[in-house]
Amino acid sequence: MQRRPRRRRNVPRNLASTSQDSPESPRSPTPPPPYTPAPQQHAEPLMLAPPLPEISIDGDWIIHVRRPFIVEDMLKVFRNNVTGMVKVDIAGENAVDSGGVFRDVLSEFWEKCFQKHFEGEDECVLVPSPQLSPDDFSTIGKILLVGYEQQGFFPIRFSRVLLICAMFSRDLVSNDLLLE
Fold first, then answer.
1. Which of 111, 85, 109 is CA-nearest to residue 98?
2. How far apart, in whole angstroms, are the C-alpha atoms of residue 49 and residue 105?
3. Residue 63: which of 53, 76, 71 has the closest Cα?
4. What is the rounded CA–CA span in Å between residue 16 and residue 7?
5. Is the CB of residue 106 less than 8 Å from the CB of residue 147?
6. Which of 43, 107, 168, 173 is least crowded, fewest Cβ atoms below 10 Å from its Cβ?
7. Residue 85 belongs to what H/E stretch?
8. Beta strands of the chain (E only): which ranges?
9. Regarding beta strands 86-90 and 125-126, do their DSSP bridges make them parallel or antiparallel, or are they unpaired?
10. How many CB atoms lie within 10 A of CB 135?
């Protein structure tokens, strides 16, 4: 009857010496296989189909937007005369708009629009850029108006001076207000 060699306590099993260990490394564990990185798969760029045209049904509008291009899609849709209630369909999402989807789209639109086309932290001012056409300024105003009328949504980061000039007149803006 052959005895098994005794193992020490507190020694991991793979470090314990056995009769099958090679003479070159009686107590070393088997080295791990060399690291071979997985071949990189090049992901296709995110290609989303262009949005469907907006549809007017009994005075209500169903507009289609894509989240990655929400600013561009909203500007394109609202360049047309969008009147009546607005319902939103987001490409690739199964959502029924009973107000919440449009509010979510407005929130995301304004967040991205502030990042792209406005300057300022607490109070933001729209900055002319080559990316915006002169018609885009009035389109941004339409989105602001429709969002407020239908959802009660008003982005609070607008500069007070900008709002006073846009809604009333530049004459109402005092030098003190400009310096605040």
1. 85
2. 18
3. 53
4. 6
5. yes
6. 43
7. none
8. 55-57, 60-65, 86-90, 118-119, 125-126
9. unpaired
10. 10
Q: Which helix (H) or strand (E) holds 146?
A: helix 134-151
Q: Comparing C-alpha atoms, which of 89, 20, 93, 11 is closest to residue 52?
A: 89
**CA-based radius of gyration for the chain:** 32
pLDDT along the chain (180 residues), means of 10: 61 51 57 64 49 65 89 90 83 82 93 90 83 86 91 87 74 71
For the chain, count helices (H), then strands (E). 5, 5
Q: Which pLDDT score is estimated for 11?
A: 52
- Cross-strand pairs, 62: 55, 87
Tokens found for residue 25:
């490394």
- 70-78 helix and 100-117 helix, angle to the nearest 10 degrees: 110
Task: Decide if 16 contacts 26 (C-beta within 8 A).
Answer: no
Helix axes of 100-117 and 134-151: crossing angle, nearest 10 degrees: 150
Q: Identity (one letter) of the amino acid at 24?
A: E
Q: What is the pLDDT of residue 107?
A: 94
Q: At what angle do helices 70-78 and 134-151 cross, to 10 degrees?
A: 90
Q: Looking up tokens 């109402």, which residue turns up?
A: 172
**Two structure tokens written together for 24:** 């070159």
